[in-house]
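anyone seen this seq b4? input:
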Amino acid sequence: MEQNYLPLFRKYRPQSFKDIVGQESLVKALSNAIELNRIANAYLFCGPRGTGKTSSARIFAKSLNCEHGPTLEPCQKCASCVDITNAAGLDVIEIDAASNRGIQDAKELISQVQYAPINGKYKIFIIDEVHMLTGEAFNALLKTFEEPPKNVIFILATTEPHKVLETIVSRCQRFDLRRITTEDIIKRLREISNLENIKITDDALFTIAKNVSGGLRDSLALLDQVSILGVREEINKDLIEELLGKVNFDVMLKLLNNISSQNIEETIATIEDIYTKGNEPRNLAENFIEFLRNVILVLNSSNNEIISKCTTLISEDIEKIRSYNFDKDKITKILNIFIEYYKEIRMSANPYLWMELAGIAANNPNNTILEAGTLNQQIQTEIKKPVLKASAPVSASIKQEKQEIKEDNIQKIEKTLSKPVVENKEEKPIQKSATNPVGMNNTDCAEIWTNIIQAIASLPAKAFYSGVAKLVKIQDKKIVLGFLHENALIQAKSDSKLPQLNDAVSKICPDYEIEFTRIDASSQTIAVKPKIIPQRPKEIIPQENNIPNNSKNVSNSIKEQAGQNQSEDEQKETTKKTVENYSPKVKSMIEQFNGKIID
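predicted toks r here
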Protein backbone atom coordinates (compact mmCIF):
# COMPACT_ATOMS: atom_id res chain seq x y z
CA MET A 1 0.00 0.00 0.00
CA GLU A 2 1.35 3.38 -0.94
CA GLN A 3 2.22 5.78 1.84
CA ASN A 4 0.77 9.28 1.98
CA TYR A 5 3.20 11.83 0.61
CA LEU A 6 4.57 14.34 3.11
CA PRO A 7 6.08 17.66 1.99
CA LEU A 8 9.74 18.00 2.88
CA PHE A 9 9.18 20.79 5.41
CA ARG A 10 6.85 18.47 7.36
CA LYS A 11 8.85 15.31 6.85
CA TYR A 12 12.06 16.90 8.14
CA ARG A 13 10.55 19.07 10.85
CA PRO A 14 12.84 19.19 13.92
CA GLN A 15 11.85 16.69 16.61
CA SER A 16 14.53 17.44 19.22
CA PHE A 17 16.81 20.29 20.22
CA LYS A 18 19.72 18.89 18.22
CA ASP A 19 17.65 19.16 15.00
CA ILE A 20 16.99 22.89 15.37
CA VAL A 21 19.06 24.87 12.84
CA GLY A 22 20.54 28.28 13.48
CA GLN A 23 19.00 29.04 16.91
CA GLU A 24 21.84 28.14 19.25
CA SER A 25 21.03 30.76 21.90
CA LEU A 26 17.41 29.60 22.20
CA VAL A 27 18.42 25.95 22.42
CA LYS A 28 20.99 26.71 25.11
CA ALA A 29 18.53 28.76 27.21
CA LEU A 30 15.76 26.14 27.10
CA SER A 31 18.20 23.29 27.74
CA ASN A 32 19.57 25.03 30.85
CA ALA A 33 16.05 25.73 32.08
CA ILE A 34 15.22 22.00 31.84
CA GLU A 35 18.46 20.86 33.49
CA LEU A 36 18.14 23.36 36.35
CA ASN A 37 14.38 22.77 36.69
CA ARG A 38 13.66 26.47 36.34
CA ILE A 39 10.57 26.35 34.14
CA ALA A 40 8.69 29.63 33.72
CA ASN A 41 4.92 29.93 33.42
CA ALA A 42 4.93 31.79 30.09
CA TYR A 43 7.29 32.08 27.12
CA LEU A 44 7.16 34.33 24.05
CA PHE A 45 8.94 33.18 20.87
CA CYS A 46 9.37 35.96 18.28
CA GLY A 47 10.96 35.87 14.85
CA PRO A 48 10.44 35.83 11.06
CA ARG A 49 8.46 33.09 9.37
CA GLY A 50 10.03 29.68 8.97
CA THR A 51 12.72 30.13 11.64
CA GLY A 52 11.45 27.48 14.06
CA LYS A 53 9.08 29.17 16.55
CA THR A 54 6.33 26.53 16.58
CA SER A 55 8.80 23.67 16.19
CA SER A 56 10.81 24.92 19.19
CA ALA A 57 7.60 25.19 21.25
CA ARG A 58 6.66 21.59 20.40
CA ILE A 59 10.14 20.27 21.19
CA PHE A 60 10.14 22.13 24.52
CA ALA A 61 6.72 20.67 25.34
CA LYS A 62 7.89 17.20 24.30
CA SER A 63 10.99 17.47 26.50
CA LEU A 64 8.88 18.45 29.51
CA ASN A 65 6.12 15.85 29.08
CA CYS A 66 8.16 12.85 27.93
CA GLU A 67 7.65 9.94 30.31
CA HIS A 68 11.43 9.95 30.85
CA GLY A 69 11.50 13.71 31.36
CA PRO A 70 12.02 16.46 31.81
CA THR A 71 14.83 15.56 29.44
CA LEU A 72 16.91 17.14 26.69
CA GLU A 73 16.41 14.11 24.44
CA PRO A 74 12.77 12.98 24.27
CA CYS A 75 12.29 9.29 23.52
CA GLN A 76 9.90 9.98 20.59
CA LYS A 77 8.17 6.68 21.43
CA CYS A 78 6.01 7.24 24.51
CA ALA A 79 2.35 8.22 24.21
CA SER A 80 3.06 11.84 25.13
CA CYS A 81 5.84 12.24 22.53
CA VAL A 82 3.78 10.59 19.78
CA ASP A 83 0.75 12.77 20.54
CA ILE A 84 2.80 15.97 20.42
CA THR A 85 4.46 14.91 17.15
CA ASN A 86 1.00 14.34 15.63
CA ALA A 87 -0.39 17.54 17.22
CA ALA A 88 -3.11 15.47 18.88
CA GLY A 89 -2.17 15.51 22.56
CA LEU A 90 -4.63 16.29 25.34
CA ASP A 91 -1.97 17.84 27.54
CA VAL A 92 -0.40 20.00 24.82
CA ILE A 93 -3.05 22.15 23.17
CA GLU A 94 -2.21 24.21 20.10
CA ILE A 95 -4.41 27.23 19.45
CA ASP A 96 -4.47 29.33 16.28
CA ALA A 97 -5.05 32.89 17.49
CA ALA A 98 -5.88 34.03 13.97
CA SER A 99 -9.15 32.05 14.03
CA ASN A 100 -9.73 32.06 17.80
CA ARG A 101 -9.10 35.68 18.62
CA GLY A 102 -12.16 36.92 20.49
CA ILE A 103 -12.94 37.27 24.18
CA GLN A 104 -15.18 34.16 24.12
CA ASP A 105 -12.23 32.11 22.88
CA ALA A 106 -10.10 33.55 25.68
CA LYS A 107 -12.73 32.61 28.27
CA GLU A 108 -12.87 29.06 26.89
CA LEU A 109 -9.08 28.80 27.16
CA ILE A 110 -9.21 30.01 30.77
CA SER A 111 -11.82 27.36 31.57
CA GLN A 112 -9.47 24.62 30.30
CA VAL A 113 -6.59 25.83 32.46
CA GLN A 114 -8.14 24.46 35.64
CA TYR A 115 -7.99 20.83 34.47
CA ALA A 116 -4.95 18.79 35.47
CA PRO A 117 -2.70 17.10 32.87
CA ILE A 118 -3.64 13.52 31.93
CA ASN A 119 -0.47 11.82 30.64
CA GLY A 120 2.36 14.30 31.13
CA LYS A 121 3.61 16.45 33.97
CA TYR A 122 2.51 19.78 32.48
CA LYS A 123 -0.52 21.16 30.71
CA ILE A 124 0.94 23.30 27.92
CA PHE A 125 -0.89 25.81 25.72
CA ILE A 126 0.88 26.80 22.48
CA ILE A 127 -0.78 29.93 21.06
CA ASP A 128 0.41 30.58 17.50
CA GLU A 129 0.13 34.03 15.87
CA VAL A 130 -0.74 35.46 19.28
CA HIS A 131 -0.62 39.04 17.96
CA MET A 132 -3.98 38.39 16.27
CA LEU A 133 -5.85 38.32 19.60
CA THR A 134 -8.13 41.28 20.28
CA GLY A 135 -7.45 43.74 23.08
CA GLU A 136 -10.33 42.30 25.12
CA ALA A 137 -8.93 38.77 24.75
CA PHE A 138 -5.47 39.93 25.87
CA ASN A 139 -6.91 41.67 28.92
CA ALA A 140 -8.95 38.59 29.83
CA LEU A 141 -5.77 36.47 29.87
CA LEU A 142 -3.67 38.88 31.94
CA LYS A 143 -4.46 37.44 35.36
CA THR A 144 -4.13 33.85 34.15
CA PHE A 145 -0.70 34.59 32.65
CA GLU A 146 0.51 36.23 35.85
CA GLU A 147 -0.71 33.55 38.29
CA PRO A 148 -1.55 30.37 36.37
CA PRO A 149 -2.39 27.09 38.15
CA LYS A 150 0.43 24.75 39.03
CA ASN A 151 1.98 22.80 36.12
CA VAL A 152 0.40 25.08 33.45
CA ILE A 153 2.71 26.63 30.86
CA PHE A 154 1.89 29.10 28.08
CA ILE A 155 4.10 29.30 24.97
CA LEU A 156 3.25 32.18 22.64
CA ALA A 157 4.58 32.47 19.09
CA THR A 158 4.39 35.53 16.84
CA THR A 159 6.02 37.17 13.85
CA GLU A 160 4.95 40.64 15.03
CA PRO A 161 5.82 41.09 18.72
CA HIS A 162 5.13 44.83 18.59
CA LYS A 163 1.41 44.03 18.27
CA VAL A 164 1.34 42.01 21.47
CA LEU A 165 0.05 43.86 24.51
CA GLU A 166 2.98 45.10 26.60
CA THR A 167 1.42 43.81 29.80
CA ILE A 168 1.42 40.32 28.25
CA VAL A 169 5.03 40.61 27.10
CA SER A 170 6.13 41.67 30.60
CA ARG A 171 4.70 38.43 32.03
CA CYS A 172 6.64 36.21 29.61
CA GLN A 173 10.23 35.17 29.05
CA ARG A 174 10.91 36.54 25.59
CA PHE A 175 13.20 34.85 23.04
CA ASP A 176 13.90 36.43 19.64
CA LEU A 177 14.73 33.89 16.93
CA ARG A 178 17.08 35.21 14.27
CA ARG A 179 17.02 34.61 10.56
CA ILE A 180 18.90 31.47 9.60
CA THR A 181 22.17 32.16 7.81
CA THR A 182 22.72 31.24 4.18
CA GLU A 183 25.46 28.78 5.11
CA ASP A 184 23.21 26.92 7.57
CA ILE A 185 20.38 26.72 5.04
CA ILE A 186 22.70 25.39 2.31
CA LYS A 187 24.12 22.79 4.67
CA ARG A 188 20.66 21.56 5.68
CA LEU A 189 19.39 21.51 2.10
CA ARG A 190 22.38 19.48 0.98
CA GLU A 191 21.75 16.92 3.74
CA ILE A 192 18.11 16.53 2.75
CA SER A 193 18.94 16.43 -0.97
CA ASN A 194 21.33 13.54 -0.37
CA LEU A 195 18.73 11.68 1.70
CA GLU A 196 16.05 12.20 -0.96
CA ASN A 197 18.40 11.54 -3.92
CA ILE A 198 17.71 14.97 -5.41
CA LYS A 199 20.27 15.99 -8.05
CA ILE A 200 20.91 19.68 -7.55
CA THR A 201 23.97 21.88 -7.99
CA ASP A 202 25.58 23.93 -5.23
CA ASP A 203 24.77 27.11 -7.17
CA ALA A 204 21.09 26.17 -7.19
CA LEU A 205 21.12 25.57 -3.41
CA PHE A 206 22.88 28.90 -2.96
CA THR A 207 20.19 30.63 -5.04
CA ILE A 208 17.45 29.04 -2.93
CA ALA A 209 19.13 30.05 0.32
CA LYS A 210 19.63 33.66 -0.80
CA ASN A 211 15.98 34.13 -1.82
CA VAL A 212 14.06 32.82 1.22
CA SER A 213 14.84 35.67 3.64
CA GLY A 214 16.39 33.39 6.23
CA GLY A 215 13.43 30.99 6.46
CA LEU A 216 14.32 27.31 6.40
CA ARG A 217 10.73 26.22 5.85
CA ASP A 218 10.48 28.32 2.68
CA SER A 219 13.71 26.84 1.37
CA LEU A 220 12.46 23.29 1.98
CA ALA A 221 9.18 24.11 0.24
CA LEU A 222 11.06 25.36 -2.82
CA LEU A 223 13.37 22.35 -2.81
CA ASP A 224 10.30 20.11 -2.63
CA GLN A 225 8.81 21.95 -5.61
CA VAL A 226 11.82 21.26 -7.83
CA SER A 227 12.59 17.79 -6.42
CA ILE A 228 10.47 16.09 -9.08
CA LEU A 229 12.68 17.57 -11.79
CA GLY A 230 15.81 16.37 -10.01
CA VAL A 231 15.02 12.68 -10.30
CA ARG A 232 16.51 12.22 -13.78
CA GLU A 233 18.39 15.45 -14.45
CA GLU A 234 20.38 17.87 -12.33
CA ILE A 235 18.67 21.05 -11.12
CA ASN A 236 20.61 24.20 -11.92
CA LYS A 237 20.49 27.86 -10.92
CA ASP A 238 18.48 28.96 -13.98
CA LEU A 239 15.58 26.68 -13.11
CA ILE A 240 15.42 28.04 -9.55
CA GLU A 241 15.37 31.62 -10.80
CA GLU A 242 12.59 30.76 -13.24
CA LEU A 243 10.48 29.28 -10.45
CA LEU A 244 11.14 32.33 -8.31
CA GLY A 245 9.90 34.60 -11.11
CA LYS A 246 13.33 36.18 -11.49
CA VAL A 247 14.84 37.09 -14.83
CA ASN A 248 17.89 35.09 -15.85
CA PHE A 249 21.27 36.66 -15.05
CA ASP A 250 22.41 36.59 -18.68
CA VAL A 251 19.22 38.36 -19.79
CA MET A 252 19.71 41.05 -17.15
CA LEU A 253 23.30 41.52 -18.25
CA LYS A 254 22.17 41.79 -21.87
CA LEU A 255 19.59 44.43 -20.94
CA LEU A 256 22.15 46.44 -19.00
CA ASN A 257 24.65 46.23 -21.85
CA ASN A 258 22.04 47.49 -24.34
CA ILE A 259 21.17 50.41 -22.07
CA SER A 260 24.80 51.24 -21.33
CA SER A 261 25.69 51.22 -25.05
CA GLN A 262 22.63 53.42 -25.79
CA ASN A 263 21.08 50.86 -28.13
CA ILE A 264 17.49 51.94 -27.66
CA GLU A 265 15.91 49.48 -30.09
CA GLU A 266 17.65 46.46 -28.56
CA THR A 267 16.63 47.74 -25.13
CA ILE A 268 12.95 47.85 -26.08
CA ALA A 269 13.20 44.46 -27.79
CA THR A 270 14.76 42.88 -24.67
CA ILE A 271 12.11 44.36 -22.37
CA GLU A 272 9.36 43.12 -24.71
CA ASP A 273 10.91 39.65 -24.83
CA ILE A 274 11.07 39.46 -21.03
CA TYR A 275 7.47 40.66 -20.77
CA THR A 276 6.11 38.12 -23.28
CA LYS A 277 7.66 35.32 -21.24
CA GLY A 278 5.35 36.15 -18.33
CA ASN A 279 7.37 38.55 -16.20
CA GLU A 280 5.33 41.46 -14.91
CA PRO A 281 6.83 44.96 -15.34
CA ARG A 282 6.88 45.53 -11.58
CA ASN A 283 8.83 42.32 -10.96
CA LEU A 284 11.15 43.12 -13.85
CA ALA A 285 11.85 46.57 -12.45
CA GLU A 286 12.48 45.18 -8.95
CA ASN A 287 14.79 42.48 -10.28
CA PHE A 288 16.69 44.94 -12.47
CA ILE A 289 17.14 47.39 -9.58
CA GLU A 290 18.51 44.53 -7.47
CA PHE A 291 20.76 43.49 -10.34
CA LEU A 292 22.12 47.04 -10.73
CA ARG A 293 22.84 47.13 -7.01
CA ASN A 294 24.84 43.91 -7.38
CA VAL A 295 26.71 45.30 -10.39
CA ILE A 296 27.67 48.44 -8.47
CA LEU A 297 28.98 46.28 -5.62
CA VAL A 298 31.05 44.24 -8.08
CA LEU A 299 32.51 47.38 -9.66
CA ASN A 300 33.47 48.80 -6.28
CA SER A 301 34.94 45.69 -4.66
CA SER A 302 37.66 43.24 -5.61
CA ASN A 303 36.82 40.67 -2.92
CA ASN A 304 34.71 37.98 -4.59
CA GLU A 305 33.97 36.26 -1.30
CA ILE A 306 32.35 39.34 0.20
CA ILE A 307 30.43 40.01 -3.02
CA SER A 308 29.04 36.45 -3.07
CA LYS A 309 28.03 36.77 0.56
CA CYS A 310 26.15 40.03 0.00
CA THR A 311 24.57 39.11 -3.36
CA THR A 312 23.21 36.12 -5.26
CA LEU A 313 26.15 36.19 -7.69
CA ILE A 314 28.60 33.35 -8.08
CA SER A 315 32.25 33.75 -9.09
CA GLU A 316 31.49 33.14 -12.77
CA ASP A 317 28.84 35.88 -12.76
CA ILE A 318 31.18 38.34 -11.04
CA GLU A 319 33.91 37.84 -13.63
CA LYS A 320 31.40 38.16 -16.47
CA ILE A 321 30.24 41.56 -15.14
CA ARG A 322 33.82 42.79 -14.86
CA SER A 323 34.55 41.77 -18.43
CA TYR A 324 32.07 44.38 -19.72
CA ASN A 325 34.04 47.28 -18.13
CA PHE A 326 30.92 49.21 -17.15
CA ASP A 327 31.32 52.82 -16.03
CA LYS A 328 30.55 53.14 -12.31
CA ASP A 329 29.01 56.59 -12.50
CA LYS A 330 26.87 55.67 -15.50
CA ILE A 331 25.51 52.55 -13.78
CA THR A 332 24.66 54.62 -10.71
CA LYS A 333 22.73 57.11 -12.88
CA ILE A 334 20.86 54.25 -14.57
CA LEU A 335 19.96 52.88 -11.14
CA ASN A 336 18.61 56.28 -10.05
CA ILE A 337 16.48 56.51 -13.20
CA PHE A 338 14.91 53.09 -12.64
CA ILE A 339 14.25 53.87 -8.99
CA GLU A 340 12.49 57.07 -10.07
CA TYR A 341 10.40 55.30 -12.72
CA TYR A 342 9.63 52.36 -10.41
CA LYS A 343 7.24 54.62 -8.49
CA GLU A 344 5.16 55.02 -11.65
CA ILE A 345 5.51 51.36 -12.65
CA ARG A 346 4.19 50.29 -9.26
CA MET A 347 1.15 52.59 -9.29
CA SER A 348 0.32 52.98 -12.99
CA ALA A 349 -2.58 51.29 -14.75
CA ASN A 350 -0.21 50.62 -17.67
CA PRO A 351 3.04 49.53 -15.97
CA TYR A 352 4.57 48.09 -19.17
CA LEU A 353 4.51 51.53 -20.82
CA TRP A 354 6.42 53.05 -17.91
CA MET A 355 8.88 50.15 -17.89
CA GLU A 356 9.51 50.79 -21.57
CA LEU A 357 9.98 54.51 -20.94
CA ALA A 358 12.38 53.74 -18.09
CA GLY A 359 14.51 51.74 -20.51
CA ILE A 360 14.40 54.57 -23.04
CA ALA A 361 15.29 57.19 -20.43
CA ALA A 362 18.17 55.09 -19.10
CA ASN A 363 19.75 55.06 -22.58
CA ASN A 364 20.79 58.66 -21.95
CA PRO A 365 21.43 58.84 -18.18
CA ASN A 366 23.43 62.09 -18.30
CA ASN A 367 20.26 64.20 -18.10
CA THR A 368 19.68 65.32 -14.54
CA ILE A 369 16.32 64.35 -13.09
CA LEU A 370 15.26 66.92 -10.52
CA GLU A 371 13.52 65.93 -7.35
CA ALA A 372 9.79 66.65 -7.42
CA GLY A 373 9.99 69.05 -4.46
CA THR A 374 12.88 71.02 -5.96
CA LEU A 375 11.20 71.26 -9.35
CA ASN A 376 7.91 72.39 -7.82
CA GLN A 377 9.75 75.08 -5.88
CA GLN A 378 11.39 76.34 -9.08
CA ILE A 379 8.04 76.49 -10.86
CA GLN A 380 6.46 78.45 -8.02
CA THR A 381 9.38 80.90 -7.99
CA GLU A 382 9.19 81.38 -11.76
CA ILE A 383 5.47 82.05 -11.96
CA LYS A 384 5.52 84.45 -9.04
CA LYS A 385 8.23 86.71 -10.49
CA PRO A 386 6.37 89.07 -12.83
CA VAL A 387 2.95 89.89 -11.39
CA LEU A 388 1.67 93.37 -12.21
CA LYS A 389 -0.28 94.87 -9.37
CA ALA A 390 -2.36 98.05 -9.53
CA SER A 391 -1.00 100.81 -7.32
CA ALA A 392 -4.29 102.78 -7.37
CA PRO A 393 -8.03 102.09 -7.60
CA VAL A 394 -9.66 101.50 -10.97
CA SER A 395 -11.49 104.80 -10.70
CA ALA A 396 -8.22 106.82 -10.72
CA SER A 397 -7.70 109.11 -13.70
CA ILE A 398 -5.54 108.12 -16.67
CA LYS A 399 -3.33 111.18 -16.14
CA GLN A 400 -2.57 110.26 -12.55
CA GLU A 401 -1.74 106.66 -13.53
CA LYS A 402 0.73 107.81 -16.21
CA GLN A 403 2.61 109.86 -13.65
CA GLU A 404 2.91 106.95 -11.20
CA ILE A 405 4.35 104.49 -13.73
CA LYS A 406 8.08 105.05 -13.86
CA GLU A 407 10.61 104.05 -16.46
CA ASP A 408 12.01 101.12 -14.48
CA ASN A 409 8.53 99.70 -14.00
CA ILE A 410 7.89 99.94 -17.73
CA GLN A 411 11.07 97.99 -18.37
CA LYS A 412 9.99 95.28 -15.94
CA ILE A 413 6.60 95.07 -17.63
CA GLU A 414 8.27 94.89 -21.02
CA LYS A 415 10.58 92.10 -19.89
CA THR A 416 7.67 90.16 -18.39
CA LEU A 417 5.13 90.51 -21.16
CA SER A 418 7.59 90.12 -24.02
CA LYS A 419 7.90 86.38 -23.33
CA PRO A 420 5.94 84.73 -26.12
CA VAL A 421 3.70 81.75 -25.48
CA VAL A 422 5.33 78.83 -27.27
CA GLU A 423 2.53 76.84 -28.82
CA ASN A 424 2.19 74.13 -31.41
CA LYS A 425 1.82 76.01 -34.66
CA GLU A 426 -1.16 75.12 -36.75
CA GLU A 427 0.40 73.36 -39.71
CA LYS A 428 -1.19 73.81 -43.08
CA PRO A 429 -2.19 70.69 -44.95
CA ILE A 430 0.27 69.40 -47.53
CA GLN A 431 0.01 71.29 -50.79
CA LYS A 432 -0.40 68.64 -53.43
CA SER A 433 0.24 69.25 -57.13
CA ALA A 434 0.84 67.15 -60.20
CA THR A 435 4.17 68.80 -60.93
CA ASN A 436 5.58 68.43 -57.46
CA PRO A 437 4.17 65.28 -55.82
CA VAL A 438 4.84 64.80 -52.13
CA GLY A 439 7.60 62.33 -51.32
CA MET A 440 10.07 63.24 -54.06
CA ASN A 441 12.04 65.65 -51.86
CA ASN A 442 13.70 64.25 -48.74
CA THR A 443 13.90 67.68 -47.13
CA ASP A 444 10.14 68.15 -47.48
CA CYS A 445 9.51 64.67 -46.11
CA ALA A 446 11.73 65.34 -43.10
CA GLU A 447 9.90 68.58 -42.41
CA ILE A 448 6.49 66.90 -42.69
CA TRP A 449 7.49 64.10 -40.31
CA THR A 450 8.90 66.66 -37.86
CA ASN A 451 5.56 68.47 -37.86
CA ILE A 452 3.70 65.21 -37.27
CA ILE A 453 5.94 64.34 -34.33
CA GLN A 454 5.32 67.78 -32.87
CA ALA A 455 1.54 67.34 -33.25
CA ILE A 456 1.39 64.08 -31.28
CA ALA A 457 -0.39 64.92 -28.03
CA SER A 458 0.89 62.04 -25.89
CA LEU A 459 4.48 62.53 -24.79
CA PRO A 460 5.19 58.75 -24.44
CA ALA A 461 3.91 58.16 -27.98
CA LYS A 462 5.85 61.17 -29.23
CA ALA A 463 9.03 59.86 -27.60
CA PHE A 464 8.50 56.37 -29.03
CA TYR A 465 7.92 57.37 -32.67
CA SER A 466 10.66 60.01 -32.66
CA GLY A 467 13.16 57.59 -31.14
CA VAL A 468 12.35 54.26 -32.78
CA ALA A 469 10.51 54.84 -36.07
CA LYS A 470 12.54 55.43 -39.25
CA LEU A 471 10.96 57.54 -42.00
CA VAL A 472 11.16 55.52 -45.24
CA LYS A 473 9.14 57.72 -47.59
CA ILE A 474 6.01 59.87 -48.01
CA GLN A 475 4.34 59.13 -51.33
CA ASP A 476 0.97 58.20 -52.84
CA LYS A 477 -0.89 59.47 -49.80
CA LYS A 478 1.07 57.11 -47.56
CA ILE A 479 3.59 57.81 -44.81
CA VAL A 480 5.81 54.73 -44.59
CA LEU A 481 7.63 54.11 -41.29
CA GLY A 482 10.23 51.39 -40.84
CA PHE A 483 11.25 49.45 -37.72
CA LEU A 484 14.36 47.35 -37.21
CA HIS A 485 12.73 44.91 -34.77
CA GLU A 486 9.44 43.03 -34.77
CA ASN A 487 8.78 43.95 -31.14
CA ALA A 488 9.08 47.66 -31.97
CA LEU A 489 6.66 47.16 -34.86
CA ILE A 490 4.14 45.53 -32.51
CA GLN A 491 4.47 48.39 -30.06
CA ALA A 492 3.93 50.92 -32.85
CA LYS A 493 0.54 49.33 -33.59
CA SER A 494 -0.54 49.20 -29.93
CA ASP A 495 -3.66 51.01 -28.70
CA SER A 496 -1.58 53.32 -26.51
CA LYS A 497 0.45 54.71 -29.42
CA LEU A 498 -1.21 54.26 -32.84
CA PRO A 499 -4.35 56.40 -32.17
CA GLN A 500 -2.10 59.27 -31.05
CA LEU A 501 -0.12 59.04 -34.29
CA ASN A 502 -3.28 58.86 -36.43
CA ASP A 503 -4.65 62.00 -34.78
CA ALA A 504 -1.44 63.90 -35.50
CA VAL A 505 -1.40 62.73 -39.14
CA SER A 506 -5.03 63.82 -39.63
CA LYS A 507 -4.08 67.33 -38.45
CA ILE A 508 -0.95 67.71 -40.58
CA CYS A 509 -1.70 65.49 -43.58
CA PRO A 510 -5.43 65.04 -44.22
CA ASP A 511 -6.37 61.93 -46.22
CA TYR A 512 -2.96 60.36 -45.63
CA GLU A 513 -2.46 56.90 -44.14
CA ILE A 514 0.27 55.38 -41.99
CA GLU A 515 2.02 52.25 -43.20
CA PHE A 516 4.48 50.23 -41.07
CA THR A 517 7.16 47.92 -42.42
CA ARG A 518 10.16 45.92 -41.27
CA ILE A 519 13.58 47.15 -42.35
CA ASP A 520 17.17 46.18 -41.69
CA ALA A 521 20.28 48.19 -40.91
CA SER A 522 21.15 48.54 -44.62
CA SER A 523 17.75 49.93 -45.66
CA GLN A 524 17.64 53.50 -46.95
CA THR A 525 15.72 55.92 -44.75
CA ILE A 526 15.27 59.67 -44.57
CA ALA A 527 17.40 61.31 -41.88
CA VAL A 528 15.18 63.23 -39.45
CA LYS A 529 15.97 64.82 -36.10
CA PRO A 530 12.58 65.98 -34.82
CA LYS A 531 12.56 68.41 -31.93
CA ILE A 532 10.03 67.95 -29.16
CA ILE A 533 8.93 71.47 -28.30
CA PRO A 534 6.56 71.46 -25.34
CA GLN A 535 3.65 73.81 -25.06
CA ARG A 536 4.44 76.40 -22.50
CA PRO A 537 1.98 76.94 -19.64
CA LYS A 538 0.17 80.23 -19.90
CA GLU A 539 1.79 83.16 -18.12
CA ILE A 540 0.05 84.46 -15.04
CA ILE A 541 -1.17 87.91 -16.01
CA PRO A 542 -3.00 90.45 -13.88
CA GLN A 543 -6.75 90.47 -13.78
CA GLU A 544 -8.21 93.18 -15.91
CA ASN A 545 -10.16 94.76 -13.07
CA ASN A 546 -6.93 95.41 -11.20
CA ILE A 547 -5.04 97.16 -14.05
CA PRO A 548 -5.67 100.75 -15.12
CA ASN A 549 -6.87 101.25 -18.67
CA ASN A 550 -3.75 103.10 -19.76
CA SER A 551 -1.56 100.32 -18.30
CA LYS A 552 -3.37 97.72 -20.39
CA ASN A 553 -2.81 99.72 -23.54
CA VAL A 554 0.87 100.24 -22.78
CA SER A 555 1.28 96.55 -21.94
CA ASN A 556 -0.38 95.34 -25.13
CA SER A 557 1.73 97.56 -27.34
CA ILE A 558 4.93 96.54 -25.57
CA LYS A 559 4.02 92.86 -25.84
CA GLU A 560 3.30 93.09 -29.57
CA GLN A 561 6.52 94.98 -30.33
CA ALA A 562 8.64 92.62 -28.20
CA GLY A 563 7.15 89.56 -29.87
CA GLN A 564 8.19 90.90 -33.28
CA ASN A 565 11.74 91.84 -32.31
CA GLN A 566 12.66 88.86 -30.14
CA SER A 567 15.89 87.23 -31.26
CA GLU A 568 16.44 83.52 -31.83
CA ASP A 569 18.65 83.28 -28.75
CA GLU A 570 15.86 84.66 -26.58
CA GLN A 571 13.42 82.18 -28.10
CA LYS A 572 15.78 79.29 -27.29
CA GLU A 573 16.13 80.59 -23.75
CA THR A 574 12.34 80.79 -23.45
CA THR A 575 11.96 77.19 -24.65
CA LYS A 576 14.62 76.07 -22.17
CA LYS A 577 12.78 77.70 -19.28
CA THR A 578 9.53 76.15 -20.51
CA VAL A 579 10.96 72.64 -20.19
CA GLU A 580 11.76 73.27 -16.54
CA ASN A 581 8.05 73.70 -15.80
CA TYR A 582 7.35 70.01 -16.41
CA SER A 583 7.55 67.02 -14.07
CA PRO A 584 10.94 65.27 -13.69
CA LYS A 585 10.13 62.31 -15.96
CA VAL A 586 8.53 64.43 -18.70
CA LYS A 587 11.47 66.86 -18.55
CA SER A 588 13.89 63.95 -18.83
CA MET A 589 12.17 62.51 -21.89
CA ILE A 590 11.97 65.93 -23.63
CA GLU A 591 15.68 66.50 -23.16
CA GLN A 592 16.59 63.02 -24.41
CA PHE A 593 14.50 62.96 -27.57
CA ASN A 594 15.41 66.38 -28.94
CA GLY A 595 17.24 64.99 -31.91
CA LYS A 596 19.55 62.70 -29.94
CA ILE A 597 18.13 59.33 -30.91
CA ILE A 598 17.87 59.13 -34.69
CA ASP A 599 21.06 59.62 -36.66
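Confidence is low (pLDDT under 50) at residues 368-439, 533-555, 557-565. Strands lie at 42-46, 92-96, 123-128, 152-158, 173-176, 470-475, 478-483, 513-518. kinda curious what u guys think
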